[in-house]
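Explain the record.
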Amino acid sequence: MTEPTLAYLFRETRLNLDPTSPTSTIQFKLLGSSSFSQARSQHVQKQTIDTADEAIDQSEQGFAEHHLADEASVFFRRESSSPRCISWRLLRSRTVLQLQVVDLTQKKGAEQEIRFTLRFCFPAAIRPFGIAFAELEEQDAFNIFALTVDKELYTLTIHKNFFISQSVTDSRLGDWCKIYTHPALTYRLPYRIFAVQYQEVLISLHDGGILRLEQVVKDGGWIWKDFIYAPGEGGWGASIRGLIPWRDHTTALFEDINLEPTTSAAISASPEGDHLFTVSLNYMLRIRDHKTGEVCAQVDLLSQEDAETRSNTRQLMGPYQRSLLQIVKPEFVRDGDLYYVVTYSPKDHQFKFWGVRDPGEAVNGIYDIHPTLKLVPPVDQLLDTSVWNLEEFYLRPKPLLQSTELWIRARVGATSQVFCLKFSLFDDDDFLQMTWKSNWTAVDGGSMGANTLKSMPQYPSLEAVVSFAHHADSITENALNFIFYPDRFTFATIESALYRYRTGLALPSSKTQYPLEPSKVPLKQRVCEAVAGKVSLRSHTSDERGGTDYGSYHTKVAEQWIVFAGLIIELHRRRTEVLSLAFDETIGLPWISLADYISPIRRCNEIETIQLNAEVLSHGEEALEAGPIVRSLQDRESVFVGCFLSAASAFRQQLPAPVKHTISVLASVEAFQDPFLTLNKRIENFYDRCALAEYITDDQHSTLLGSFDTIGGTTELNNDLFRRALGKLDSDTEGHEHDLSLMAYGERALIRGAQETYESGCGVLIDLLVLAVVMAMEFDENDLPNNFVPSEIFVEIMNRLREYELLRYLGSTTRIEPPPKERHSSISRSHRDSDAIHRRAEELHLPTVTLLWSIFIGDWKNISVPQGPDIPTSSLLTYWIRNWALGPDLTGNYDEIVEGIMGNLLVHRDFDLAVNFVPFLSSSPWPMYLKARLSLEQGRLVEAARAFKKAGFGLSRISKNKSPPGAEPVKDVELWDHQELLAPHEVHYFNEGNAGLYYQHIADLFERTRPQAWTYVAEFSRMALWHFDQKRFMRKEAESVNRLFTALIKTARWEEAYSTLGRFEKPDLANTSFSAHLESDTSGPTPSKARISSSSDSNSQYWHIVYAFRISRSDFRGAAEALWEWLDRLRASSRRADVGAPREQEIISRVFLLLINALACVQPEQAWLLAEAEGSKRPPGFAAPGLALGMKGKVASERRILTLEDVRAEYAMWLDRVAAVEQGRFAFVEGERDGDGDVSML
């Protein structure tokens, strides 16, 4: 018989167990029995844990205690309950029980927001196998039974609202927590606990007995009523002997307990509840009466030979075996059977299937369905090992046990592997034996395995130095992209690795380096400062030329990133330790619980099946006989395409890692470039840039030719085969609408599955691209089929690669999910502070999500469900992932979708992301407008203006789309602007057939978005006026004239502003506007803005402008008048301050000099000015009214004439006063003088 082939048909979807927000974890502190009686009427001690702060500077031991579970699994509630799937984990040396809701979906109309993660802190550790769950019948709640090492039995009644509302948990401790201590447990030690129902618990005792506890009503409350079942062999005498320390028989050591051979390792109740089935450590299956505990029947699980050996050696099974027994009752059973029992014997790895006809009958009540068969999973052959252990199993029965699924989890050393077998129990012996030999399928660990991550091209390595052409920024950027890829590593993992890295290099911890609030400093920034900051550029100097050795520097940087990534992978490997396998019978979905992951198992899609089983498919015709693989693919044609894809993948994998990385990068760049070369030239150029001729050896070329012999040789490599392979990347939509809505872990599963879909799809496309290019450049014409046209295939692959690269970018890029907000103008929010947005996001605990989730998660509700009865969720999950991930119709609506994404980024002000997204946009008018809006928001005004002009023609012409008769016309821009970037009133500026409206809109954008961009406001206002040639735009024209005039005044283009006055409809209005602007901005010393404050600094810029303006027009006396007014204000300010500040003294001196120079520039007889008479009273800092323009009707104050000599004399007096103050010769009373003429004030 041939060796079994390992076929990977299922895949894990590993999901992080992070809480929904950093502050959504509620921690309860439970008390022991000694303190519980006084505190049961009090409120429980609880607190909200901030997991973000908790993770900072966490050592490896602290990381393990807080995040790595000692034991974990999933409890499934009945179908009508919500939530249904409860992930439970034991942390901190089994003293903390953590509960999380991990449902993927819930019914529409009954949606509930699951907000909280619950932690229960026990005063003592929970015993191994010491926790059990049971569903309440009359309430939407469940019981948790936890047995601690102090032998205290806790009963926690958890209502569903514990996960929804924090106020529910404010109830008294005694309302939902009870503690019970049984006196017998002090000398009869507990081994395992089993929950039969919410009111009944069975505890297996070390002496072979069973303690049954049942809750009964007494005095208006619940109490435990106890029953103790005697051991199965030897009766009570054996039980008493088990209490004596000395013994002359074999026992099994469990923790610090010696277990008797009759100790029950598995207990399960019959479907009717009348009998209990137990499996003891000595391989005996017993049937007990549920009420009395009497043994009704027993069966030896070992074969006759093994039983004789056991009687001589007294062999026992290991006490840590998790699964030994399962009772199933399918929808239909064989005549005479009531139900069936499945047992597993660890000694020989054998499964037994028992039919139960009468559990109370000692002889014929139970029978072996296949007594002559030895049904053993061929794990040793599948994993190529001789030592393995089956830890868990689950049988999913079907009617009459036809097409029944058996799921097992086997462990080989530190490796845990899940297998599945589909079989019919009542097949004949030969066929069933063959099925057990060759029909096993395996579960792939997915993309989150430690070894898988290390094999990725993005993983930091020394080869990256070559791949990135010695560019340190690229090396660092690549490492950061790998480490901070969405949901790849938890923040706690990176924080702990950072702490270890800092400790190992004697660097200060995060809390030491950032003592105030280290959690406020982005983790990425702290990682960069620690890793990249360790390598100094100055320390890498070349000895020969004395210059910097950049190659050595880049290598050192790469080495540091390798060290840091290695620390993360080491912690991540501990997170991926498999702890248990559970099966959700209601929806047909298996789950794997890991140390710090939860993973639903889904069926692989066709591309994943081909990639995971490439080695088998590479054998061609032999693959057609690999039963499970062939049955998992659609048809024989899919197998043929699979062989082709496997050969293409194997060829590319032979290339060196740097070459593969270069090919991936160049392929991505080529997919988004506007073609300016012929197709054949593009193929040749791609071939040369990848340097494929240097790395493809003759042996590889021959191997490639030979690999296609399995599909008929290279003559089969035609365009049709390439297109059939590309067709496997499409999704098939079928079925009907569903009534489900996604929950948090359903969304996580979609994102994880989508990311894996994009990665596998890009891998297939690059495989086909390399093959097509190599065939076009290196194959002889005789080796190619006539209908192979490489240029056509090249274009099709590039178009598809462009779509997948876009989706991959969306799945790998994150942003803070914007909160719901009201719709407002696109320009009224232009200057919102992005930092303020992030601060508000932190206050609201808004999640960081991928762009794919943020923009497209709402599309999931429109996905159809396939037709067919009893489709398991393991298949539905794959269907949902693939159809949602590939849901956007990029082939037909690529530009429309890309433009919508860009608009979304602009609306939510994610400008950094928008910059990276620009390469995805085309050069059509609306994308060009979006680019311009981005440039405008970022202050790149020249680029913005250029892009706005390019988009002008296309956005101003009349719409081409036709509206139905009688319907409101729809403009092109309304079809393009899906994200409502434009406010409703702004839509009217587009598609009107006149570019003037469009340019008026652009001028308005510049005016409101960038208040200092008056040059561009004037430019676009002038362009708008140039296009306004119709009477219906008269009102718009007036608006543009006013805006143009204002912009020209703001930019001091006075002549152009004056010439613009002629376009005002009312000349009086024009004169008034111009006079007001002249008075406000150019007339001298008394404008309103200068009178707002008396501070010498606040208006200095204004006086500089007035002085410069008058000097530029040779108005020296006007400039001198403005300077004298400024000087007067400065001296008034100095007097109010009692003593002139040094800075003000310097300014006054400079103004004096400017004033003297201005008067010296005119003829001597003209070197004078009018100034306010000395002693004239006016508010300090206000200008003389007579010097202002437009002061008609005012009576001027008394004035005096100041000549150039007078000004020089004033300057000399000022210098004397400054010197007197510096020498301290001034009076303390205003106006007082001494004999030397010193003055009291300046």
Q: What stands out?
A: Residues 604-886 form one domain. Residues 1084 and 1122 are 6 Å apart (CA to CA). The longest helix spans residues 744-778. The radius of gyration is 41 Å.
